[in-house]
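# step 3/5: fold
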Amino acid sequence: MSFANQDIEKKINDARWQKRIVLLFDNNQNSAEKQLKQWQKVNLDEWDILIIKISLNDVQLRQKYQVDQSKTLSILIGKDGTEKWRSDRLVDFSELEKLIAKMPMRQNEKNIKDSD
């Protein structure tokens, strides 16, 4: 495994139980950049989201997450470390927001914030 892969794996492991992770797999068409631009006005900290862009050349992570090199894909990994959602198209953040809002951990976070 290359150092880049190790760094990404470490980020993913360190974020467990702290952040939701969106992995953006690019297919050299700048789709990941387009997705990031769509989401640039979103307060990702409010949603405890960490975005990690995976390059076309990152073969090991593509194999791990079963993402073909020709694909652009977004994968949401929950705070528990499991995959919650994937999409092979650009997605408006409101779609992801609705999904996260239904998650039990997000509902617990909201209840804690509301009681403060």
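# step 4/5: annotate
The chain has a mean pLDDT of 84.
# step 5/5: archive (pending)
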